[in-house]
Amino acid sequence: MAQKVLNKFFEKYIKGTAYKSAVVNSKIFLCHLTNAVCLGIGINKESKKVYITSRAVKHLFDKKLAEEFLFLIDNLHKVVKYPDKIYRNRPGKRGEYCLVKRIGDANYLCSIEITASNEDYKEIQIATAFRLRDDDYIKKYALLWSW
To answer: Are the CB atoms for 104 and 34 separated by under 8 Å?
Structure first.
């Protein structure tokens, strides 16, 4: 379901746009975090909805090879909802946490940021995602949670 929604979102707002062009500022609901992931990143269960913005999809579209982009669009919800590991993101990087999942023969990383919409509710948005080509890349991050 999330895969189809994200594909339709891409086709409506991003497909056919020029490189680095501005896009309509919009967002869609991607999936819910599991209770275990909420516990791993220390947020309450009421704040477990994850969104992705048109700007984030445009960033992926502009920066990734077509094959990797299409794979991410089809599998991003799996990385977010069922990560194998959760890391604290490094200072200066966008997003507070990095969710990592092995799919097939590669690891995929999704950086999420938590924004306060009001005092009681926090909104989770995807900052970026990519395939980890270098296994040493993630060793610089603090592991918070692992299956």
So the answer is: no
- Taking alpha carbons only, the member of 49, 54, 68 closest to residue 124 is 49
| Amino acid code (one letter) for 21 | S
**97 near 112, Cβ under 8 Å?**
yes
Using CB atoms within 10 Å of the CB of residue 87, give its burial: 0 to 12 exposed, 13 to 18 middle, 19+ buried: buried
Write the DSSP string, 108-131: EEEEEEEEESSSS-EEEEEEEEEE
Q: CA torsion, points 113, 145, 50, 127, in degrees to nearest 10?
A: 30
Write down the pLDDT at residue 32: 94
pLDDT tens string 33-66 = 999 998 888 888 778 899 999 999 999 999 999 9
pLDDT tens per residue across span 57-109:
999 999 999 999 999 999 999 999 999 999 999 998 999 999 999 999 999 99
SS3 86: strand
User: Which residues, including other chains, have CB under 8 Å from residue 24's CB and lie 6 or more apart?
Assistant: 13, 54
What's the rounded Cα separation, in Å, for the pair 140 and 46? 31
Q: What is the DSSP string of 13-24?
A: HTTTPPTT----
